[in-house]
Amino acid sequence: MNAIEVLRLSKSYKDRHKSVKALNGLSFVLEKGHIGGFVGPNGAGKTTTIKILLGLLFKDEGSVKLFGTSNYDAVSVRKKIGFVPEEFSLYEYMSGEELLSFNASIYRAFDTRTIAELQRLFSLPLNRKISSYSKGMKKLLSLYLAVSVNPELLILDEPTDGLDPIFRDRFLSFLVNFVSEHGTTVLFSSHILSEVEKVADYAILINKGKLVLQGDIDSLKENSLFVTFTCKNAPVKVPGAELLNKEKMLYALSVVSGAEEVLERLKSLGCTILEKRALSFEEIFMNAINGETGGENGRTA
Amino acid sequence: MDALLKKELKENFLKFVVEFAILVAVAVFLVPYGFRMMKNLAPLLSNLPGGGLNGEAKALLPKLNDLNFFVVSQWFGKNLFEFAIFFGVINSIGAVAGETERKTAIFLFSRPVSRARVLFVKYAVILLGTLIPILISTYTIPLLARSIPQKINMAVFNRLAVQSLLATAAVVSVSFLFSVVINDRVKGGLIALIALIATVLIGKVSALKWVSVMYLYLGKFLPAISLSIVYSLIFVLLSLVLLLRKEF
């Protein structure tokens, strides 16, 4: 079953009498139990998508389903969601404890064991007023709030922004353990690719409000290819191939999908393969975004 | 206690207490001190050099000794009227605009709680927080007036009290709407006040007197309270419709 289904989602904003398209027919799915890395460059439409999923923004066109229901912004559906926003202000006059208690009353759920585990890792001064918290502490409190209500879906928008490297590492380890223990689905939005690669098993890559690529991270890597080759019959007709050395007819080629087909084609052209390897997640991202191999409507590995 | 209710009470409590203290202080000053000052003013005004006051002003002089006239004109017609409008706007304008301004709206409206519930809890707390100080301070006046050898006409007093409470409810509802529409508390508050003042100016045209907020406080009892109730309902429902469509 899919936890999230987004189909041809569109959303425009008005900016000084001009309409700016934030989402332009975005479609993707995230199956239950997966950690989906939701990646894209700044302004790709990640936060807009997340806000639509949470009913904070309204879609112009398209459909959204959460846990199979198109009534995705209903209170009963939102009860299943824990959310760490990219940026929000908490009620500064409350203490961490008070805000956790307020949150628990609204959700009618509170997982003391998870909070104890988080406290063991981060020792957040919950008795202090939130106004005295640093940015990182507020981000951690957001995480406490999101996971303390036993969510079925965690939506994390740049969750490590403001955390120091040690806490960032602890946070990511906690997340992986939490998900494996509770079977929670996670939509992990970030532009730090190394983080996404560390925790996610699925990737949804968007750019300019459209899906560029989605799929299992391992499959994406398997289907990708970086290859250097020489060919007797120059010039070769392999789209995207870059000529590195004209005298030796040395070429380099990166593809984010269809590695097998590319290798077959190079063989059929009589090319000699010098080096071949799968792309790293970061290289896949860069290649897809640069449009070297990404399709208009996205690809699925 | 409901978590939302508790939160709203906590956020607004100090404001309500300060407003209550101000209203009670004004009421205590007005009766008996203000009334005695007014009473002492009457002989001075009638003995002004050059024959004293003329016309309508002279006809008012005997009324300066009348406690009921004093209470109606100085409490219901002036102090309460002004403070209730001011407090009504101040209390309401931060309801949604405050959440948007502080960005806590993203936190609040992404929780599993309906926007309608948030709105009604906020409205209920602000309405009661505005009306209770008005109610208590208003009814301290008959208590304070016991030291004066005149009786307050309680039938008229009660009618005006009810009318003032309902009119303030309408003011709260109007300001609430501005709080939903305008994301800036200061701007929203100023616009709400200007709009309410504008209704008084429009109400100068006799055919449009029912538009005026002053008419709600001091107009004929039945039409005024009916209008207050209708305005309150319309503006709260409008606030709800707009909040349901608002993006954060």
How would you describe this protein?
- The complex is a heterodimer of chains A (301) and B (248).
- Chain A is of the alpha/beta class and 301 residues long.
- Chain A has 2 domains: 2-216, Rossmann fold; 219-300, no CATH class.
- Chain A is built from 10 helices and 14 strands.
- Chain A has helices spanning 46-53, 75-78, 96-107, 112-122, 135-147, 165-182, 193-199, 217-223, 259-268, 281-289, and strands spanning 2-15, 18-31, 35-39, 61-66, 81-84, 153-157, 185-190, 202-207, 210-216, 225-231, 242-245, 250-255, 271-277, 299-300.
- A 7-stranded mixed β-sheet of chain A has the order 5-6-7-3-8-9-14, sandwiched between helices. A 4-stranded antiparallel β-sheet of chain A has the order 11-12-10-13.
- In chain A, a hairpin with a 4-residue loop joins strand 11 (242-245) and strand 12 (250-255).
- Chain B is an all-alpha fold and 248 residues long.
- Chain B has one domain.
- Chain B is built from 9 helices and no strands.
- Chain B has helices at 3-46, 55-60, 67-101, 104-109, 115-144, 154-181, 185-202, 213-218, 221-245.
- The chains are: A alpha/beta (301), B mainly alpha (248).
What is the H/E order of chain B?
HHHHHHHHH
* Radius of gyration of chain B from CA coordinates: 21 Å
CATH architecture group name of the largest domain in chain A: 3-Layer(aba) Sandwich
Q: Number of domains in the coordinates of chain B? A: 1
Q: What distance lies between the first and last C-alpha atoms of chain A, to the nearest angstrom?
A: 18 Å
Shape of chain A: elongated
Instruction: Average the pLDDT over all residues of chain B and give the rounded result.
Output: 92
The most extensive contact between chains is:
A-B, 26 and 21 residues
Low-confidence stretches of chain B: none
Q: What's the CATH superfamily of the largest domain in chain A, by name?
A: P-loop containing nucleotide triphosphate hydrolases
Q: Give the DSSP E fraction of chain A (strand runs of 2 or more residues).
A: 25-35%
Specify the structural class of chain A: alpha/beta
Q: Give the % helix of chain A.
A: 25-40%
Q: Would you identify the regions of chain A where 5 or more consecutive residues have pLDDT less than 50?
A: 292-297
Helix tally of chain B equals 9
Number of helices of chain A: 10
Top-tier CATH class of the largest domain in chain A: Alpha Beta
Largest sheet of chain B: none
* Global geometry of chain B: elongated
Strand content of chain B: under 5%
Rounded mean pLDDT of chain A is 89
